[in-house]
């Protein structure tokens, strides 16, 4: 890493490698958050094609790939007991390997409950759950080596697998399914599981809305800021951020009013939409043409606004502050749950996480702030994760049946009770008890009130683009590059990577 602060992708790897950590990222996938300390690298890295494509992964020998897929994946367990190891599997029955990337004990306990429940109810076959760190890379290797799991759910560079042919088309399964109804799933979630008209992923485990502006009520009250007049534009949000920020005489941050890149403000990819282009209502990628649109005045303005928020106290101080506390809302020691950050942009899982990580504090939720050109709009987005059958996996019929089961009320209730996560089922959403987590009602109601409703774009080289944006925004925040130059360089890097990976077009 070139940054002193863990990027989201690397943090996911860390918590996957240290099962004992309580860190849990509801939307955690392979995407990076923007780095928040001074990287000295001004130019994007060279092409990541070898790392990002299944074709390149196939150059590894089958034996090496198989070793990586199984042995390296299981290395995620350490001294703390892994609840997945206690899932009973009936002897003599077909056992399906089920991979996912979510880490942290909250998630692992929930997934263990899911697998245990399923296995008790099924005599025809069983599932063996496995948490896999750096899951995109290891799944690519497993596919290349001819030894993939039967089912994978979440935390991968989805579009990369759809486009490269590394996933099995599911249309025939979906059409015959009696448990998954396309009319019951939000259209935006269905769309992000498709490529060129074919379905490769079915929403599973966690697939709901991504954006809300979350505030610590005590810090609002302390500063005389009204909970019924939450900011809806960047200008007002900037004033509130300054007012809530407290810097000690030593220059150290005591309270950070707002980190625009904390949580979903800095998350992009692997089930998470890109907030900043959406705030300006422009698509950064045209799926039909296979073209990027970063080099424009709106992207420049977005990068300028992020820099302006960082300039309130300085990017170097924010880097140290976020490193000391941590980000997101699950860990009690992270900035927001600990009460030293006034606001962040986060997803619907925040109320459930905060109920556990910060039970003695009160939080309020509102629409995300937007540039003045879109002031008054109620921006929301779908997002989330998918169940897929990796190419070359065996027992596809049973594998899809398990994906179906994950979309039943029984499974979704287990997930909701254990983590607060929601799926893409309209029927389940209509019956779920949103009062279980205070503030969740805002997110649920926003599904009907949103205008516009955004969605994840199927970007074939999203992992590379995410990484480049992270590095370039970092340079802007430290005033080592202008927003104009950064937007132009991001456009150039993304376009070149697409050519590198798909010289004949996508």
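^ Assign residues to that structure.
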């Amino acid at each position: 890493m070139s940054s002193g602060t863990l990027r989201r992708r690397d943090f996911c790897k860390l918590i996957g490698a240290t099962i004992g950590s309580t860190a849990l990222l509801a939307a955690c996938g392979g995407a990076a958050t923007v780095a928040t300390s001074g990287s000295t690298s001004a130019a994007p890295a060279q092409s990541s094609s070898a790392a990002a494509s299944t074709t390149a992964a196939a150059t590894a020998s089958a034996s090496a790939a198989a070793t990586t897929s199984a042995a390296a994946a299981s290395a995620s367990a350490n001294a703390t007991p892994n609840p997945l190891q206690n899932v009973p599997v009936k002897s003599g029955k077909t056992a399906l390997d089920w991979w996912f990337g979510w880490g942290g004990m909250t998630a692992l306990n929930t997934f263990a409950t899911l697998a245990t429940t399923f296995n008790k109810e099924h005599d025809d076959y069983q599932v063996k759950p496995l948490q896999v760190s750096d899951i995109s890379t290891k799944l690519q290797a497993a596919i290349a080596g001819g030894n993939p799991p039967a089912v994978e759910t979440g935390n991968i560079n989805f579009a990369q697998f759809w486009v490269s042919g590394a996933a099995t088309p599911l249309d025939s399964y979906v059409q015959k399914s009696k448990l998954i109804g396309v009319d019951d799933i939000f259209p935006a979630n269905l769309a992000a599981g498709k490529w060129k008209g074919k379905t490769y992923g079915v929403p599973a485990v966690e697939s709901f809305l991504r954006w809300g502006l979350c505030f610590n009520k005590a810090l609002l009250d302390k500063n005389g800021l009204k909970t019924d007049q939450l900011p809806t534009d960047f200008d007002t949000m900037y004033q509130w951020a300054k007012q809530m920020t407290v810097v000690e005489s030593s220059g150290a941050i005591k309270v950070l009013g707002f980190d625009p890149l904390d949580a979903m403000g800095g998350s992009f990819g692997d089930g998470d939409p890109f907030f900043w282009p959406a705030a300006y209502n422009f698509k950064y990628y045209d799926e039909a043409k296979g073209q990027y649109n970063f080099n424009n005045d709106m992207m420049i303005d977005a990068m300028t606004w992020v820099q302006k928020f960082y300039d309130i106290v300085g990017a170097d101080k924010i880097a140290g502050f976020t490193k000391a506390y941590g980000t997101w809302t699950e860990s009690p020691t992270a900035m927001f749950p600990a009460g030293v950050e006034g606001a962040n942009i986060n997803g619907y899982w925040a109320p459930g996480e905060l109920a556990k990580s910060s039970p003695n504090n009160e939080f309020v939720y509102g629409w995300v702030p937007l540039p003045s050109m879109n002031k008054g709009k109620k921006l929301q987005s779908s997002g989330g994760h998918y169940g897929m059958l990796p190419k070359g996996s065996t027992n596809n019929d049973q594998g899809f049946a398990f994906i179906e089961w994950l979309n039943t009320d029984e499974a979704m209730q287990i997930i909701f009770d254990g983590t607060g996560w929601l799926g893409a089922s309209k029927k389940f959403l209509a019956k779920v008890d949103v009062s279980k987590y205070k503030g969740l009602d805002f997110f649920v109601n926003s599904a009907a009130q949103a205008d516009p409703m955004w969605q994840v774009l199927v970007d074939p080289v999203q992992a590379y683009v995410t990484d480049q944006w992270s590095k370039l925004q970092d340079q802007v925040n430290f005033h080592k590059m202008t927003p104009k130059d950064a937007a132009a360089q991001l456009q150039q890097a993304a376009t070149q990577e697409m050519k590198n990976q798909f010289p004949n077009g996508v």
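The first strand starts at residue 94 and ends at 100.
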